[in-house]
Fold:
Amino acid sequence: MKRKNILIVDDEPDVVVYLSEVLESSNIDIYSADNAEAGWKLAGEVHLDLICLDIMMPGESGLSMYTRLRRTPDLKDIPVIIISGVEQEQEFDFRKFVDDEKTPPPEYYFEKPINVDDFVAVVERLLSMKEKRKKKGHSS
Amino acid sequence: MNRSKPIAREISGSWFYKELFQQVPFNVAVIDHNYNIVEANDNFTDYFGRWKGRKCYKVYKNLDYPCLGCNARLTFEDGRPRVSDESGVDQHGKEAHYVLHTAPLREHRRGPVKYIIEMSRDVIETKNWQVEYQLLFERVPCYITVIDRNFKIIRANENFRNNFGDVMGRQCYEVYKRRKTKCPNCPAARTFKDGKIHHSDQVGVKKSGERAYYVLTTSPLGRDVDDVAHVIEISTDVTASKKLEKEALEAERLAAVGQTVAGLAHSIKNILMGLEGGMYIVGKGLKRNNKQILDQGWEMLERNFNKTTSLVKDFLSFAKGRLPDLKMVNPNDLVKEIVDLYHDVAEDVGVELIAEVDPNIKNVPLDAKGIHTCLTNLVSNAIDACRMSGKKTNRVCIMTEDKKGILTFTVLDSGAGMDSEIKSRVFTTFFTTKGGQGTGLGLLTTRKIVKEHGGKISAHSKKGQGASFKMAFPKKRLYALYNENNREESGE
Structure:
């Protein structure tokens, strides 16, 4: 399997370290940014297979970066996992924050603190789905 | 008694006196000792009707017996003229109000009183006006009192009496506020002094012991502005709307409690994530027997424990509800303190911290400690925003202004700014953009302190263009709070 590039965008250094450790594997390269602008720059430079994105960050918010990603043809297909302390059931309503129907919701949402096993499983699933889609795209 | 000779004939038969008797613009009647009307002019006849051979009490009041306290009788006895307000019936049987003058008629200067002349004039119009004005005064839906220079209440309307009890002749400060001495900043005293109208917000005590909030206007009574003899005090009771305001505040407080709990959970989740990360890495370090990984994990654990400590500390200081302790202070001094305190910290991260204060600002009642906390929060936020902006030179400016009765503190920075999503949340939950550095309570606490002062805080910013936070305090409210606190302190 080809090496995978994952970008973690979170202003909290402990989260970056934690997620990097969790995802550490011989097959994955981790890139990280502590704000959306830096993350956006990396997304333009590196071919990414997955982005883990925080919502509340200084400067541009994670949701604003997410919307930009989805509107950019070259980047719109990168799977995104949003990881935030915002409670999904009561507070995080994607459409409340992004009311543009053209912007699809993210692939997955994790509430902090994460369940490591679930997180790893979701990451693996999203990476393999992307792989399959790519293969399918090539074969057709 | 001589009844037979009409008096007109007795008064010398001169045409002049006859004409005078007829034309004088009063109802004139002459009565004898037995209450018989012996002569009357045409005005009298037009007003009261037939009189010849009838008793005065029958003609005036349709009574079958003399009136109680009959003035004519008294004048017969002592020879002194009298005036009285009377009610009777006119010739059509309609109620009549008239002022009656009685005077003695003597044949000789020192002789006995032979007749009484009664001159009356209809005052029903005046009476109606009086009733109307009285009604207006009594029933108008506000409190009205009139006080003299000794602050004694000489008139009070029905609404006021109903709410404040028997008040006539008592000192206004005693009645309105149950004080033993004049109120400080008494608006009536100012009106007595300058003859001008003054408005103020007041808190008093009703006869039921209930607090009354009212808006008072004092106005001079009388023509001479230089020498005001009486002041009229008109006030509107706003207790009901105050209650509503309190209820709304309470509802807002309850909603805030919900938000606070949600926010607290959010902060704790972030810390838990850090703790979990630390444990995960420590576990990994142990498994691999790798000291470097172990140290990394341990540091993470320590950091997140410290975060818990500061969260709890901030949370407690936020939760501590207290009334602002208002003292007269100069806002510029508070700003100077903050600049002195943060100057070096700012300089270390390449931020120039300056103050632009209005030198004309005078002392105002503020809770110095509370405002210090607010300014500390805003300035440290501003410095952080500058630090995160990535720009090389940054500036944070604290400004004060006193305009149109509003005292304003503004903290301006050239930092990273906020987008609209962040701006809409900064004052609400345990929101933080500082990751591990912040607890998200600073602005919430600041807002709370500002609100406790009766002020407002607002944020203005565009992403990438810095931000400004403005705390605005209406001075009228600061003084009202100040007076209320002082009242409570003196046990009133």
About this structure: Chain A has a mean pLDDT of 85. Chain A touches chain B through 32 residues (CB under 8 Å). The first strand of chain A starts at residue 4 and ends at 9.
